[in-house]
Structure formats: C-alpha cells, structure tokens
Amino acid sequence: MNCLVVRAHPLDKSLCAEMTRVVTEMLQAAGHSVIIEDLYEQGFGAAMTPQERESYYAESYDTQGVSGQIERLKAAEAIVLVFPTWWFGFPAILKGWFDRVWAPGTAYDHAPGFGPIQPRLHELRRMLVITSLGAPWWVDYFILRQPVKRVLKTAIVGTCAPRCRLQMLSVYKCEDLSPSQVDKFCSRIQRALAEW
Questions:
Q1: Are 61 and 110 in contact (CB under 8 A)?
Q2: pLDDT in tens, 105-144
Q3: Which of 9, 24, 32, 121 has its CA 20 to 30 Å from the CA of residue 2?
Q4: How many helices (DSSP H) and strands (DSSP E) are in the chain?
C-alpha cells in the first residue's frame, strides 16, 4: 500500500520519534511504499491563510500553499498518525494539517445548501493513530470520553473516508515510562501493523 506516516512532534529525541521509526521500519520491511510527512521538519504552517479561507466555499479551494501535502494525502491508501495529545486535543500543527490539507475538493465536497459533506478519500482504507498522553488512561476514557478518537472517527475520517478502518493506540503517563514499557507499547504498534 501507499502509506503516509504523519509525525507531529517538535523533538527529534522523543517517544513520538521512536514510534515513528518503529512504524516506518515495519511498513518498509513489509514491502509498503512509505512517505514520511514530518510537519515540524517541514515547517508546516498550522494557520489557514486568508486566501485559503476565502476560497473555502468558492468553486475551487486555494491549494497553492499545501499542494504537496494534498497530493500525498490523495495518494495514500493508509495513514499512520504519530503525535502527542496535548490538552486532550491535537497539537496545533496537526490540527492545521487537517484544516488546510483535508480541504474541500480534496478530502470532501460541500453539499448543496450546506448539507452533509460528500466524501472524496475513497482510496484511504486504513488509519492507525498512535498518540502519547501524560494523563492516566481513566481520565481519557471516563472523564473526557476519548475526545481525539471521537473527533477522528466521527468528524474527520468517518465523513471524508467512510471505507477507512480506524484504529487508535494510546500510551498513557508517557512522561514516566520505563524502557520496558516503551518496548511493550511498540510491540502493540507492530502487532497492529502486522495486519496490514
């Protein structure tokens, strides 16, 4: 498959960097085509430009600033997102990637009369979401009710790529993990990717 690995962490020596390495090596070893979209390394601008916003409901969306990212998204049959969950949401740079790249004419089409959007990412079949949280698991599950997963499943992937199978792996209390706990979580990543 054509796999797009999107990393959204500012530090090269981080848990997210290690998890990205594990993902990339496993996908390549399995014979998949892998492109890494390192948003911080690219200096990706999270903020939507005035031109992009003005064109959002126009006949064609202004893709000038994100044309490369859009082409890579359209070519992807599988996506792996690797990012930290901050304040129980996406890092700003990843939220900006969704805002600017999962755009009208690319990820979906507006419906007449502002009805439900029409999906366009029909080739996207799998998404694995890998995220780290400083909080314990019970806060994410019982108090916040997994907000990142709900947004991805319902509002983003579910509407733009309805045939896509979404799987999410979260590692909790990430600031205090032992090397063996990191290895155990990376084994979970490998098991998930083995099904691809």
A1: no
A2: 999 999 988 889 999 999 999 999 999 999 999 999 999 9
A3: 9
A4: 9, 7
Number of neighbours of residue 161 by Cβ within 10 angstroms: 24
Q: For 73-149, where are the E strands, in sequence order?
A: 78-84, 108-109, 118-119, 126-132
Q: Which amino acid is at 46?
A: A
Query: Of 5, 70, 13, which is closest to residue 34 (Cα–Cα)?
Result: 5
pLDDT digits (tens, 9 = 90+) for 150-188: 999 999 999 999 999 999 999 999 999 999 999 999 999
What's the rounded Cα separation, in Å, for the pair 108 and 102?
8
Q: Which of 39, 69, 64 is nearest to 52 (CA)?
A: 64
What is the amino acid identity at position 149?
Answer: K
CA distance 44 to 186: 27
Task: Report the C-alpha gap between 133 and 136 in whole angstroms.
Answer: 8
Phi-psi region of 113 (alpha: psi -120 to 50; beta: other; left: phi over 0): left
Q: Are 109 and 120 in contact (CB under 8 A)?
A: yes
Q: Are 137 and 172 in contact (CB under 8 A)?
A: yes
pTM: 0.96
DSSP strand pairing (118-119 vs 108-109): antiparallel
Task: State how far Cα 119 lies from the chain centre.
Answer: 17
